[in-house]
Amino acid sequence: MISRFAPAPTGHLHLGHVVNAIYVWGITRAAGGRVVLRIEDHDRQRSRPAFERALLEDLTWLGFAADGDADLVRQSERGAIYEAALATLRAQGRVYACECSRSGIADASPGGSEPRYPNRCAARGLPEQPGLGLRIRLDPTVERFTDLRLGPQAQCPAEQCGDLLVRDRAGNWTYQFAVVVDDCLQGVTHVIRGEDLLASTGRQIQLARLLGRAEPPAFLHHPLVMKTPTQKLSKSDGDTGIADLRRRGMLPADVIGEAAVRAGLLDRARPLPAEAVGALFR
User: Fold this and answer.
1) Of 52, 172, 226, 241, which has the fewest beta carbons less than 10 angstroms from its beta carbon?
2) Angle between the 15-30 and 49-62 helix axes, to the nearest 10 degrees?
3) How confident is the model over 191-205, as pLDDT tens digits?
4) Domain 2-281 is classified in which CATH homologous superfamily?
């Protein structure tokens, strides 16, 4: 079993990230598996080296350690790898240029749970050039999978989101594309993440298959820590930041215990060191 912890260096870690770390390390340790660490800094405009340094420091302070320094991957350093994966899709005739903006797509998709791209540029034959995004044609198939916590799921990505953006108009590789390529190449067998990413699973399974991965990873989507009934914690808002909790004098085991209570994994707050989180899932 290989899982991964994959923060984006666009803000500071908060209790929601600690909940994800508890699930990732806890489930993986309980199964005798291995955790790899990935820095998902594909968004060059929002990612900051200072945030990466801070999140690595917070992880070390908490006691969550990846299994091997060689497994630290930065998406910003993997452009050639993503180009090679894109070439595989281009050889299948699936890649086309797109000039549509995110706001324009949202305006054209009122009322939906997420904006659906109407494949407006699919037949336009726009040249691939700076300032245009790149999309891949998806198949109109239903992707079926069993979430290890939520049970059987069925999603049709072509209806949910339309053709998938793999590189945006600023030249950034997208999360949906980079994460699938990296999971394939790092041999990730179990993707453990929050429920907010459940809707991405079908498209990632289809994309992985198009790239040659016949057997997708297993998926488990855990509950989120919410700020309000409809709003999750956000690192961009500075919610319950680990650095702030450290400054208040909380110890690592206290922070992990607090996160476990918020996630419903403990019924009362108590110190929980990182090396003991596997016991929550045995």
Assistant:
1) 226
2) 50
3) 999 999 999 999 999
4) HUPs (3.40.50.620)
